[in-house]
Amino acid sequence: VRIKGNYKYELGELASTLNFMAQEIVRSNQIKDDFISSISHELRTPLTGIKGWSETLTSGGFDPAETKIGVGIIAKETERLIGLVEEILDFSKLQQNEMKLVIGRVNLKELLQEIMLNVWAKAEQRQIQLQLDDKSNRTLFVIGDGNRLKQVFLNIVDNAIKFSNENSWIELVVSLQDNNQVLVEIVDSGIGISEEHLNKVKDRFFQVNHQGGGTGLGLAISQQLVELHNGKMDIHSELGVGTTVSILLPLIEQSEADEMKEDGDN
Ligand code: ADP
């Protein structure tokens, strides 16, 4: 009886596990379907612009100023298209464990300053104040791929700008942690994310709405890239208050950094 009882129990457990797995497959297929539909739309928008302007310009009869506008739009939309496709390829490489990092010594604060310069104009346009609060007071070196780390921080700061209202602020806080680690917090006072959406946002593909365009892959890519650098990424948010993305990375000692000098900088 006991054997039978155990057997029954295991069957019941198996059934509920299978049921759960089936639900997960349905959910994951639904997410992928939504992704394909939203990414097709995202890809189509710049293509429509490129097609329209190239046809218009081919028909001729435009003065140099008009031609310059048309060519400018084609160049901008092409750039956008390349960005979207690169994001999809990065995501796919990460999924298949095929992302290759070009490892070197990365000066983290220099990298963050570069990010600030990169997005300065975009923030200024929307009257968003950007500041770097460095609580570490020392040079911070990490081992990693400078371009990939730049991609991570750029994506997060870009999101912070995209999802902030005019006349707000964004702060990058750098602090030393135990075990020779550094914490970088990207704090915004933007629209925030509700509790209901926060877990989904951490999942790939999900966008609260399509307000900012994009693929919905940025955070998932960033998280996986941080993990490839033996770090951790976390996101906290409150609707209407703002969002904080925290990135914890292991540091290397100055002596190790000096030894790596020859291997090239970021
Ligand atoms: P994408 O920016 O391409 O949509 P992400 O993975 O970077 O993809 O972000 C997914 C979604 O998470 C965004 O569409 C947005 O809804 C939400 N999100 C991300 N960062 C923020 C932020 N700082 N404030 C509010 N919402 C955010």
TrEMBL record:
Query: What GO CC terms are in its UniProt record?
Result: plasma membrane
EC number(s): the record gives: 2.7.13.3
Topology in the lipid bilayer:
Multi-pass membrane protein
The domain of life is Bacteria
Quote one Gene Ontology molecular function term.
histidine phosphotransfer kinase activity
Q: Which reaction does it catalyse?
A: ATP + protein L-histidine = ADP + protein N-phospho-L-histidine
UniProt-recorded name of the protein: histidine kinase
Q: Which organism is it from?
A: Paenibacillus anaericanus
Q: What is the lineage of its organism?
A: Bacteria, Bacillati, Bacillota, Bacilli, Bacillales
